[in-house]
Amino acid sequence: MNIYLIRHGDAEKVSTGKKDFDRELTLPGRIKLKSAVLNWKNLIKEFNFIVTSPLTRAVQTANIIAELYGAGYNILIDKKLSPGSRTENLIEIANSLESEEIAFVGHQPDLSEQLSDLISPKGAYIDFKKGAIAKVSFGNKVSIAKGTLEFLIPVSVFNSPSL
């Protein structure tokens, strides 16, 4: 089983006029993310599921991924992936889906902590940038400290600095 942890793209700044839940991806964030996703297709053939936090910026990220992969994905929105989500929540969702390739779209600092928990019993420092993707492979079931980090790729690898 492989899981992919994906941080949402660049989003609007926090403001008094908009709730954090409703913050959207910026236009440059969308462009960078689309470029990255098109390149992910060279590494990842498909996802069986895309599971996302319910926050607008995460759902928009999941929608871009589904659109560019073009397979008519059914995006699962799960409040367990909202900011403050725990590794145990992610593990529960992954194991309940019983699939080979599952993408999770979420937030910081949760993704850094979850990735650390999944690959190391002692913890690891992870700098999980906006729009980055990490692949973690497991034998059968997802569990704490049993994963192998296959890659962690920031969105900047697939984009020019001018975007």
Care to describe what's here?
This protein has 163 residues and is α/β, with parallel strands linked by helices. The protein has one domain: Phosphoglycerate mutase-like (Rossmann fold). The protein is built from four helices and six strands, in the order E-H-E-H-E-H-E-H-E-E. Strands 3-2-4-1-5-6 form a six-stranded mixed beta sheet, with helices on both faces. Strand 2 (49-52), helix 2 (56-69) and strand 3 form a beta-alpha-beta unit. Helix 1 packs across helix 2 (56-69). The chain is globular and about 45 Å long. The termini are far apart.
How is this fold's topology laid out?
Layout: E1 2-7, H1 27-40, E2 49-52, H2 56-69, E3 75-77, H3 87-97, E4 101-106, H4 110-119, E5 133-137, E6 148-153
Parallel strand pairs: 1-4, 2-3, 2-4
Antiparallel strand pairs: 1-5, 5-6
Descriptors:
single chain, 163 residues, alpha/beta, Rossmann fold, six-stranded mixed beta sheet, 6 strands
CATH topology: Rossmann fold
Segments where pLDDT lies below 50 for 5+ residues? none
Summed up, the domain count is 1
The helix/strand class is alpha/beta
Supply the CATH architecture. Answer: 3-Layer(aba) Sandwich
User: Share of helix among residues?
Assistant: 25-40%
Cα shape: globular
Tally the helices: what do you get? Answer: 4
Main beta sheet = 6 strands, mixed
Summarize the structure.
The protein is of the alpha/beta class and 163 residues long. 30% of the residues lie in helices and 18% in strands. It has helices at residues 27-40, 56-69, 87-97, 110-119, and strands spanning 2-7, 49-52, 75-77, 101-106, 133-137, 148-153.
